[in-house]
Amino acid sequence: MTSRNVTSKALARLRAVPGLRTVTSYRRQWLAKDLVAGVVLTTLLVPQGMAYAELAGLPAITGLYTTVLCLLGYAVFGPSRILVLGPDSSLGPMIAATVLPLVAGGGPGRAVALASALAIMVAVIMLLASAARLGFVADLISKPTMTGYMNGLALTILIGQLPKLLGFKVEADDLVGEFAGVVTNVADGHVVPAAAAVGIGGVVLLLVLGRLLPGVPAVLVMVVLAIAATSVLGLGEHGVGLVGVLPEGFPPLTVPEVRASDLGPLAAGALGIALVSLADTISNASAFAARTGQEVRGNQEMAGIGAANLAAGFFQGFPVSTSGSRTAVAERAGARTQLTGVVGAVLIVLMLVLVPGLFRNLPQPALAAVVIVASLSLADIPGTVRLWRQRRVEFLLSVTAFLGVAFLGVLTGIAIAVGLSVLNVFRRAWWPYNTVLGRVPGLEGFHDVRSHPHAEQLPGLVIYRFDAPLFFANARAFRDEVRRLAAADPPPVWILVAAEPMTDVDTTAADLLSDLDETLNAGGVHLAFAELKDPVRRKIDRYGLTRTIDPDHFFPTVESAVAAYRLLTDTHWTRPAPEERPAGPGEGQAGSGEGTAGPGDAPAGP
User: Fold this and answer.
1) Which of 69, 49, 68 is nearest to 59 (CA)?
2) Where along the chain is composition biased (Gly residues) (predicted)?
3) All CATH 3.30.750.24 domain ranges in the chain, comma separated
4) Helix axes of 143-166 and 392-408: crossing angle, nearest 10 degrees
5) pLDDT digits (tens, 9 = 90+) for 318-344
6) Strand 461-466 versus strand 321-322 pairing type
7) Span 433-580 CATH architecture
8) DSSP run (H or E) holding 322
9) What is the 3-state secondary structure (H, E, C) of 490-550?
10) Residue 539 CA to its chain's centroid (Å)
């Protein structure tokens, strides 16, 4: 290979790095907008970074370290031109639930080391998943279960921040204990009036400005007013906790030191955090990409999140995710590229180096107000009510995920959310919608007799549709339903399976089909199949099913099968009385009640 070829391949690899690709295609007219958006974004990054660090049980300064490094990491390796990553309210409780039980009196230094190791583990998971092209794993959490999870998270955050908002402390291991502690402290008069005034006032101000003046940086306004109130009224002397002077400068490259016994719990937490972070990033990327005309690249997003977490982990940071609110602020401010985030990172570093005391008079209740308002945005009560009205099963899944988070903890809650989503998919395949089809004059194809009770039938023929792959979990349900149809009086001559929805038949189902066919044949009933997909038909041939099922009973369309049956029996279409209509199986199960034998069916013949 010549040196020229080596060089060209190296350049091609460099151009594949999103940040370098942006640099080579950058337009001069974007610069002013990116710079202004970066300044505006910084006013949100600083207070939120500190607030979400404390939400995770870590020193406020680590939120700024994390913000800087994740912005730089994503700017180089993240595919989106506009997404803003950083400390996130949805990850804070998960980080705390993973790290704090392991601290065991080790102090803030050990907590930071554990959180940094957690970020590196999240990065490794993301990078490996990206290399394996596993971007689809974000789909493991269905929207109803994610809604329940976020509702539970919102309640957990809200109750967890109330003590800081009101100026006292609560020592508890679960949500019930925290709530009881809040009630007890309030009843015993432990509320610090000045702290409560700052905290509650901050919440009200953020909500009012967000509703009435959405273009105004509400967090910045609230933070400036809180600092001013502290300086003028001396709130620190009235029992209000303050952030204090932040450490000057920036941390060096640090490899976090953790114990071997910490690795298992950290890995479990990292898996949950990676999944939530990916789901959050994909949803935000999809929303903003649709508005900016970009494409969502799930695997590249995982690489970008991995790079951001890796950078944060080696500089005393903690796991990060995409922030919808900060991305929206950047977009409204005119951001065009990731240079906006780079500007924000540089400004934060300058603040830490030149004016570390800038936020020394920022009250802790003000940070609690930022977190509480963010938690309210996580909850989706209207969406939960809509689930109740539209689909009770998914409402119950959402409520179960909510209860799992609220009463068993956020890490257990995310495991429950994933498990419920997977089980719901399995449930639909286990008990799929299945029905009998008939001919409806004036409509093409064959249709569900539930939706068309007076659909015409051919005497001795039952057209049965089973809307799922046929595999070990649902094969017996299929067999029992076919047996029920065959037990009619008089029994049918053919049971024709409209098999277009059957995308697979496994070996368990194949053995069952063989036994079923032999049993039916002994009673004068014959199985027939129409519209089997070619891969499925090849499997049936490979299983040797045509030794028992007549090879002539496989048809390309339902129409051709019906025509063959009519030629054999010389029967005519009849419209049954309501009490004679073949009972549709699976009444009330999930799935569409209306359907045809398959797309592109020809008219159903005379």
Assistant:
1) 49
2) 585-598
3) 433-580
4) 40
5) 999 988 778 877 887 788 899 999 999
6) unpaired
7) 2-Layer Sandwich (3.30)
8) strand 321-322
9) CCCCEEEEECCCCCCECHHHHHHHHHHHHHHHHCCCEEEEECCCHHHHHHHHHHCHHHCCC
10) 35
